[in-house]
Design goal:
117 residues; 6 helices
Length: 117
């Protein structure tokens, strides 16, 4: 019987626990969910995102780099008043996560309420 090392590791309980912990760390990173959710309806420029969620510019810059690296958002060149502008939009992968992120935020709010009450 031939063992599939990658499959065995990937589907082990230890790997799943590590994977869930990493996802929680990523989702729990400050403003990660907020940046994704602010792009839910339309592409926005750096300054529009900054204005919408009132975040430190260096923090926003880090989140945009992370989200781009995870292929959740992408820069798009948009023509505005005969000038090219960079706006960020969700990728298909990012759009697919919206429902899960909304549920994650609701769960976090319920947990916070349960702890604080």
């Amino acid at each position: 019987m031939k063992l599939n090392y990658r499959y065995d590791i990937k589907h082990s309980k230890r790997y799943k626990a590590f994977y869930v912990a990493m996802l929680m760390k990523i989702l729990g990173t400050s403003y990660f969910c907020e940046v994704v959710l602010t792009l839910q309806h339309q592409p926005k420029s750096f300054n529009e995102i900054l204005r919408d969620i009132k975040i430190n510019p260096s923090t926003l810059n880090r989140r945009i780099k992370e989200l781009t690296r995870y292929n959740l958002i992408e820069p798009a060149v948009v023509r505005v008043n005969e000038e090219n502008r960079i706006k960020y939009r969700l990728t298909k992968k990012g759009e697919g996560l919206i429902k899960d992120i909304v549920e994650f935020v609701r769960l976090a709010e319920r947990l916070e309420k349960a702890i604080m009450d």
